[in-house]
Sequence to fold (262 residues):
Amino acid sequence: MKIYILTDIEGVGGIHRREQSSPSGSEYPAARELLTNEINAVVEGALEGGASEVLVSDSHAGGGNVIWNKLHPKATMVTPCGHGNWAPGLDSKIDAMFLLGNHAMAGTQDGILNHTFSSATIFNFTINGKKYGEIGVAAIVAGHYKVPVVFCSGDLAAVREAKKLLGGLEGVVVKEGYSMYKGKLFTPEKSCELVRNGAKRAMSKIGSIKPYILKPPYKLKMEFMRSDFADENMDIAGNKRLDSRSIGRTVNSVFELLSIYH
Fold:
């Protein structure tokens, strides 16, 4: 079976500060270690559960977060290609998607480092009137290929969000948020143990969990933190101003879901 692991960094065990998730942060090098170790644990769990091939997409901030020479030798890395294709290599031949290191959508009270695509500019993102975060958008893209999401790791808020949207997937909680930057954290060793065992369990759910399919057209609305952020994105052809802080557009492809903003 062929598995696709889409990774982020804010939901990795032990990460709870901006200094860890930003390449310019003083704690970023250590966070890369935590991310790479959790990826390797998930790869190992998937292989133990019967995976024959594992692809890894490093999607945080355009990639470059995984420590390449420490990646599991049986994993294959694919690099993101921007808004239009941040899950390259994903196709109908993939048996399941795993989401690793996830955070809750913007505005989640107990979500550690919660945001939707940009913590600095975006307040809400809706598709056909329903609010989605990055977990949901990943599921929609996977659903386009009829690929189910069977695994999600992150803080409690992220796992709760994934289960509410996707039902009975394997959710692995590696920390529990008290607020944006505070929470209950496990040791790196414990987090890796949890995601490895969860990945192995998730393999047994392939075939019983349905893909999340949302058919086009997709009516998009993006609400920004400030009106000037909306101003800056009005130069994109097809965008319409909805109010002082919001823009909208309608698209017909999952590859255009993020075409609404720069």
